[in-house]
Write a structure and sequence with these properties.
Helices cover 7% and strands 40% of the residues. With 631 residues, the protein is mainly beta. Strands 2-3-4-8-7-6-5 form a 7-stranded mixed beta barrel.
Length: 631
Amino acid sequence: MKFWTRFAFALAGAITLGALTSSALINPNFTPINLISESQWIIAVTAKKTDKDGIYEATIQTVLKEDKSKSALKTVTLDFTKALNAEMKQFLVDLVMKSGPTPAILFLGKFNDPNAQNDGGAPAEGGETKAFLHAGGKWVDLIGAADGKNWGLVQINSHMEGTWAGSSDMLLKAINYTLKDPTADFPVKSGSQFIAPVKIGTVDGLLRTRPVDLAGNGKWSLLATSAKGDRLYSYDAAAKAMKDVTAAKKLSSKSAAFCWADFNADGKIDLASFDGKALSIFAQQADGTFLAQPVALAADALAKCSALAPVSTKDKVGLLISGATAPVIVKDVLAKEPKAESLAEGGLKGDALGKSAESIVADFDGDAIPDVMALFEKASLFYKGKGEGVFLPAVKCDVGTGTGAYPACLADFDGDGRLDVFCVSDDGARIWQNEGEAKFSEWIRVSGEIAYISKPNGGDCFTGDMNNDGKQDVLITYTADNSAQIFFNRGFRSFGHAHDLDVQENQLLPSSEAAQKTGCLGDFNADGAHDMVLGLPNGEVWVFTRDTADSQSLAAIVSLAAKDALKGPVNVTGWSGDRCMGAWSVLPGVTEAFFGTKDAGPITVKWQLPGGAAQKKDIQVDTKPKRFELK
């Protein structure tokens, strides 16, 4: 007996290929939890063409949710001739057959979606049994027979993107997560809010705002950099406000480029600062003040400096200088006559890769040894780390920043324990997913609302957890024509626009809506909740503090001690049972691993120091955030 025929063709006159590019806002009434729980049968299939036009045989690779009446089936038939028209037919064939090795996923069930209209969505309560195929990041309406053997592909269903907007490989992970974990959750909003923002200062020539943990105790300060003079702000618990402590800390840096590290191995992090002409180390003293020490580095090593980063060498903290065609390393920056040298002999240069951006030092291939990714607009140079400041010659990596060579940020958006790279640019944002062995592919087009709500003219970005749910979110600031945006991670690299944190929608700071110079996230008042900082083109620096009055901000937080030679950055993963909560790249005083949780309980953290054994520790989170320091 045929069914769903009336549904499939009632909309034939209204549906066009315009729906192929449409997008749906998150549907709060029909989440992946509803889809999976109300499905009677879920299978993953791979298809191949038969000798009949439009008829494909699909092998069942995995039965994700069993329907015993169909347990004998090993294959199903996909009939593309049932498409609304020839154009739709060809689109659907290409969609299914050009999706690479990832299987398509077939759902069959009687679904209840109170939000659905007559637009191809899951039917409202009491509606008909329906079936969908997810392939290539799109949803397809199916018609078929009750035995489950033969399926006709009719049209794209854009309404279902409100349930899940993402790639099919991520949906597979989401299904397995949901079936195994009774507490599985795919949030439909961030659930967080800011209190009224506060201006903490104005910095002439403002370039960047970044958090820094000066004492390594989880009390984060804020450095606002400028080639005309940096400013340092710290939280005053008595005043419950951020205060300018630049003069009190005797910090006189002027930073066109900068980084933090313990360059003199005294257990305190120092500031390396390039003012556009010369390099200096501002060494943190025992009393927390800073003492400037010029670095006698040849001018040619700094001529094209675009960024600085710390890098571990054999027994010291070295300095990585990003340049026009390739980064150079200074292995002993405090030597009487420091010398800049190539990271490796031979290998590629970045001459044809566009403008140089920053170089990121991180363990991208999971061997517990930091690598270097030198970012350019069109691609990057990847130097595999061998340890103690030794790197293999550069090879080309696909990760590119896009036009403008703005800062990038690290994240693990899909929770697989590998570091991804997020970039913003004049021509739009990019999500570079780490596929393993330091191979990357770009996936923003199938990553939820961020694909169509984020805009061009991105100027800065930062990763955080804005609702303490253990999923990594991202902030984007814009150089023109847009207000700053936060996108919350629903899980497995599917993002929603955080309307409840949106500056423009909530009229929090109208003067910031046209453009921002920079921004970052961090827990500046030590309450366990990430706050937001925006720096404006006129130099104003504003802090948006999370409102935690009516909620607990729970997290397991892992930092790395600044002692002796640099041990990092170190990848730290968090685990809730057997579910990976993602990886963070942890560097003393600069970044920490932040595993938010909605409920009290244990979180297991795992890490491996360079040259050491794999380690783990269970952190019991009770009524407040719990910190743990790697040593």
